[in-house]
Amino acid sequence: MDFTIDIYKKLILALKKEGYNFQTFAEFMKAPMDKSVILRHDVDKRPKNSALFAHIQKEFNIKGTYYFRCVPESYDEQIIRTISKMNHEIGYHYEEMDLCNGDIHAAIKLFEKNLKTLRNICPIETICMHGSPRSKYDNKSIWSNNKYTDYEIIGEPYFDLNFNNVGYLTDTGRTWDGARFSVRDKVVTNISLNVKSTQELIHNLHKNSLPKQLMLTFHPQRWTSNFAFWTQELILQNLKNIVKRYIVGKS
Ligand SMILES: [Zn+2]
Fold this sequence. Notes:
251 residues, TIM Barrel, globular, alpha/beta, binds zinc ion, seven-stranded parallel β-sheet
């Protein structure tokens, strides 16, 4: 069984054993270490699952970066505060082009407002786009006319990481090579990691066949230790992959 809390802990142990340093994305932007892993979490929904991940990381004395959306299914002030107090990084998972139907002027105004809301809770140094597969808009396009550096934002992974050096893996679609199924969560890279299961990922870590710098993207709402719940998520996710394949195939 994959994508359980148990296998997650094994993955963290493997990264530790192989000498990876756990940096938040902000730390990596300021001073990237030679052997470094950024644990990125896109809190699309069910923020409690992300709180669980944050607690586990604290037990292991490591840090991650959590991108929260400013919509009810993600935004939870109490959880954001709790995760931030554990020394993890909180970032903004922005989606204003979607929310404003592609109106870039309305979008940047809303971005300012939402960023301010989050900054009332804790410091925000980095942002990361939320990519909804069914949306017409690429949320990154808000930056065609605006600069996030004007808002004291030091990094956006899709713009600021060179994925030819930093290996990228995402659990999108309940498989680590989910970028295949993803409409939006794609990066430009010449590295082929070809990893499906977490077990395979752990195996490759021990074989030393992965890049020294890694960004691993987690969607904690898809990870669970509860079997019935996990089965339901798996069925849902397979259905979603079929829909996404259809969308990718069409475009
Ligand atoms: Zn997202």
